Amino acid sequence: ARGARIFSGIKPTGHLTLGNYLGAMRRWVVTDQHRAESLFCVVDLHALTVEHDPARVRRLSRQTAGLLLAAGLDPAVCTVFAQSHVDEHTRLMFLLECVAADGEMRRMIQYKEKSVRARDSGQSVRLSLLTYPALMAADILVYGATEVPVGEDQRQHVELTRDLAVRFNQRYGHTFVVPKATVPEVAARVMDLQDPSVKMGKSHAATSGIVYLLDEPAVVAKKVRRAVTDSEPGVSYDREERPGVANLLEILSSCTGEEPAVLAERYDGIGSLKADTADAVVELLRPLQARHAEISADPSYVDGVLREGAERARALGRPTVDAAYEAIGL
Ligand code: ADP
After folding, report:
1. 112: number of Cβ within 10 Å
2. Beta bridge partner(s), residue 79
3. How far apart are CA 120 and CA 143, in angstroms?
4. Where in the chain is the domain with CATH 1.10.240.10?
5. Phi, psi of 40 (to 5 degrees)
6. Residue ranges for motif 'KMSKS' region (predicted)?
7. What is the mean pLDDT of residues 83-109?
């Protein structure tokens, strides 16, 4: 059997956050790209499932790709590309919509949350928001990915992808590799620093609770030092009872590699935990920011990487999609 193959994606719906980095991107850079054939995709079609501004999506797509490279994805060892450049994704999506049931799409937490948000702000819910998981399943299955490194919030979509792959294989003959999600042990769900009941999301309105990867060091430090915690004395690790403190401990843990509970014992007060976490995040982002400045100096570099990436991705994906069309009776 073939070895591991890795696929993951990121939506160009806002400026990338510390949540995206610790929950997903850092593993892509540090381990994934070196241990398996891997593909990392700016999933731009997914940015169209909610109200969007065309110029902003275009700008953010390129910026997101630039940040993936700045974070350390190396186009010499992995494939970095944009979803809309490779038609295989939407070709396969339709077949997956034909094995999926509408009920299982409606059950997705993200659909429920985002459709409520759209309706609350007086907008209609785009049909593509409902069918989004079929496109995401196609993104993964096109490449025969065995692993999908994502944050906790994407686990349910990867489970649905598995169900669709198994169902297709049972009905029409073995066509797809059945992938599994890999979720980090800490910082799988980085929470907003001002409201630790919601995740730090790039698609949310900007607040001082969201650390962006390109925030100036002084801004990063200020956001972390002003994180909302609680009035209990001391530091302890308890995600349920002390979500604000637990979030800081997980962020620090993710930076230093020490267990959150071990770190908790080291601190007497929240102040020094915040100070150390602020320093750790600033240092974590420093090399990425420096490389981003270099990459931004040459916009054609990112375009070239995306062009070559799309060619590689197409070549990898086409045989599987052709086989799926054949299997389903076309
Ligand atoms: P967002 O939800 O910020 O718009 P995406 O849906 O584009 O981000 O997700 C890109 C990757 O980042 C996914 O693997 C997702 O699980 C991960 N991710 C997003 N937000 C967080 C977070 N707050 N904590 C951990 N991982 C996250």
Report:
1. 11
2. 39
3. 37
4. 217-293
5. -125, 130
6. 199-203
7. 98
Q: What is the pLDDT of residue 260?
A: 97
Residue 132: pLDDT band with limits 50, 70, 90: very high
Enter the ipTM: 0.97
- Select which of 112, 202, 223, 274 is catalytic: 202
* CA gap 26, 13 in Å, rounded: 19
In contact, 273 and 254? CB cutoff 8 Å: no
CATH superfamily of the domain spanning 5-182+299-328: HUPs (3.40.50.620)
Is 202 known to be catalytic?
Answer: yes
- Give me the mean pLDDT over the 1-14 stretch: 91
Q: What is the pTM of this model?
A: 0.96
Domain with CATH 3.40.50.620 in the chain: 5-182+299-328
Q: Are 254 and 184 in contact (CB under 8 A)?
A: yes
Residue 87 to residues 93, 135, 253, Cα–Cα distance (Å): 10, 12, 40
Measured at the CA of 117, the angle between CA 65 and CA 245, to 5 degrees, comes to 70
Q: Is 223 a catalytic residue?
A: no
Instruction: Out of 7, 11, 20, give the residue to mutate to test ligand 1, the one with the largest number of ligand atoms within 8 Å of its CB.
Output: 20
Q: Give the model's confidence band at 2: pLDDT under 50 very low, under 70 low, under 90 confident, else very high.
A: low
Per-residue pLDDT tens digits for 260-286: 999 999 999 999 999 999 999 999 999
Superfamily of domain 217-293: Tyrosyl-Transfer RNA Synthetase (1.10.240.10)
Instruction: Kindly report the protein residue whose alpha carbon is nearest to atom 9 of ligand 1.
Output: 10
199 catalytically annotated: yes
Half-sphere exposure of 283 (CA within 13 A, CB side): 11
> What's the rounded Cα separation, in Å, for the pair 16 and 33?
20
Q: Is 202 annotated as a binding residue?
A: yes
